[in-house]
C-alpha cells in the first residue's frame, strides 16, 4: 500500500486503548507478503504453521530455525512497510538462554523480522524477560499451542472450565509482566478470551477466540482457500477461493498444450528473412520450419 506507515508496539497498545482492532495474517513467501501489504494488513505473522501449509508436514514440530529464517527473509522483502512477527520454532527457546538468544538473533538479523513469537505462558516468562531486555519485541501465544499438540492431546478448545480459565489468565499476566507486547489467544472460549483481554494493558490477537480480542489473525491459505480439498474450520471465514481458480487455470493450460492451441501465433517470435536459408541451405528451410 503506497504511503503505508509501519505499525510499532507503541501504536498497537494505543490501538487497544482506542478500540481499534488489529488485523494480522500469516504469510510465508514474497508474493503473499506483497499482496498482504497492498491489502493494508497491520501485522504479518511468519508462522511455523508453514510446516502444515507450505512444507506438507502433519504438525509444526519438524519446522527448523533455518526454515523460519528463510521464509521470514522472503516475507520481509515483500512487505517493507508492514510489522513482521516471526515464530521461534519447536524447542529453540527451551534450552540455555544463550542458545535461545542466538536463535532470536538469527530471526531478527537474518530473517529481518521486527519481533518474535513464542508459545507458552508462565513457564517461559523468564526467557521472555531476557529476550525483551535484549531489545527484542516478543509476542506471546497461549491457549492451543500447536508445538505442544502431542502433550495436550490434540487440537482442543481451551478455557472451557474454571481451572483452565484461571491457568490461561495467569499465563497471560505472566507474559505481560515479562514484557510481551501482545498475546495471541488460540482456540480459547469467547468468554475467557474477552475477560483476559479486558484484564491486560497489552493487546490480544485471537484465532478461534471470539469477538472480545483486540485483534484477529488467520492463516493466508485459510482466508483464500489456497489449497486442495480444503477442510472447513468453524473459527475461519474464507473470503475467496483461489484454490479452485488455480486448479482450473492450470487444467486449461494443460488442455491447450495437449491440443496444440498453446502457443498460438501471438505467443511466438519470428526470425529475420533468410535466416533459415542460410542455416539449412536453400530449399530446405520449409522442412525445418
From TrEMBL:
Subcellular location: Cytoplasm
Entries under Gene3D superfamilies matching the protein: Phosphoenolpyruvate-binding domains
Pathway where it operates: Cofactor biosynthesis; (R)-pantothenate biosynthesis; (R)-pantoate from 3-methyl-2-oxobutanoate: step 1/2
Binding site for Mg(2+): 48, 87, 119
Cytoplasm as UniProt keyword: yes
Top-rank EC class of the record's enzyme: transferase
Catalytic activity: (6R)-5,10-methylene-5,6,7,8-tetrahydrofolate + 3-methyl-2-oxobutanoate + H2O = 2-dehydropantoate + (6S)-5,6,7,8-tetrahydrofolate
Binding annotation for 3-methyl-2-oxobutanoate: 48-49, 87, 117
Principal location: cytoplasm
Keywords: Cytoplasm, Magnesium, Metal-binding, Methyltransferase, Pantothenate biosynthesis, Transferase
Entry EC number(s): 2.1.2.11
Cofactor(s) it depends on: Mg(2+)
Transmembrane segments: none
Molecular functions (GO terms): 3-methyl-2-oxobutanoate hydroxymethyltransferase activity; magnesium ion binding; methyltransferase activity
One of the record's GO cellular component terms: cytoplasm
Any single GO BP term: methylation
InterPro entries referenced in this protein's UniProt entry, alphabetically: Pantoate_hydroxy_MeTrfase, Pyrv/PenolPyrv_kinase-like_dom, Pyrv_kinase-like_dom_sf
Stated family: Belongs to the PanB family.
Subunit structure: Homodecamer; pentamer of dimers.
Stated role: Catalyzes the reversible reaction in which hydroxymethyl group from 5,10-methylenetetrahydrofolate is transferred onto alpha-ketoisovalerate to form ketopantoate.
UniProt name for this protein: 3-methyl-2-oxobutanoate hydroxymethyltransferase
Organism: Paenibacillus lutimineralis
Amino acid at each position: 500500500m503506497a504511503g503505508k506507515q509501519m505499525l510499532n508496539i507503541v501504536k498497537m497498545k494505543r490501538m487497544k486503548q482506542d478500540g481499534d482492532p488489529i488485523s494480522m495474517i500469516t504469510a510465508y513467501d514474497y508474493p503473499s507478503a506483497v499482496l498482504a501489504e497492498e491489502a493494508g494488513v497491520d501485522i504479518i505473522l511468519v508462522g511455523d504453521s508453514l510446516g502444515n501449509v507450505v512444507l506438507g508436514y502433519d504438525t509444526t514440530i519438524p519446522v527448523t530455525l533455518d526454515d523460519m529464517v528463510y521464509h521470514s527473509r522472503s516475507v520481509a522483502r515483500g512487505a517493507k512497510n508492514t510489522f513482521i512477527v516471526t515464530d521461534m520454532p519447536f524447542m529453540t527457546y527451551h534450552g540455555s538462554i544463550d542458545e535461545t538468544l542466538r536463535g532470536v538473533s538469527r530471526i531478527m538479523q537474518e530473517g529481518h523480522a521486527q519481533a518474535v513469537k513464542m508459545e507458552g505462558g508462565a513457564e517461559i516468562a523468564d526467557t521472555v524477560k531476557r529476550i525483551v531486555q535484549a531489545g527484542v519485541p516478543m509476542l506471546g501465544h497461549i491457549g492451543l499451542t500447536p508445538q505442544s499438540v502431542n502433550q495436550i492431546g490434540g487440537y482442543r478448545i481451551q478455557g472451557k472450565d474454571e481451572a483452565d480459565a484461571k491457568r490461561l489468565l495467569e499465563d497471560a499476566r505472566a507474559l505481560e509482566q515479562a514484557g510481551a507486547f501482545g498475546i495471541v489467544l488460540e482456540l480459547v472460549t469467547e468468554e475467557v478470551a474477552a475477560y483476559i483481554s479486558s484484564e491486560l494493558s497489552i493487546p490480544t490477537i485471537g484465532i478461534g477466540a471470539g469477538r472480545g480480542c483486540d485483534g484477529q489473525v488467520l492463516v493466508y491459505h485459510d482466508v483464500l482457500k489456497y489449497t486442495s480439498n480444503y477442510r472447513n474450520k468453524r473459527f475461519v471465514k474464507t473470503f475467496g477461493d483461489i484454490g479452485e481458480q488455480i486448479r482450473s487455470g492450470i487444467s486449461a493450460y494443460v488442455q491447450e498444450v495437449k491440443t496444440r492451441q498453446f502457443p498460438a501465433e501471438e505467443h511466438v517470435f519470428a526470425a529475420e528473412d533468410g535466416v533459415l536459408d542460410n542455416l539449412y541451405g536453400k530449399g530446405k528451410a520449409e522442412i525445418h520450419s
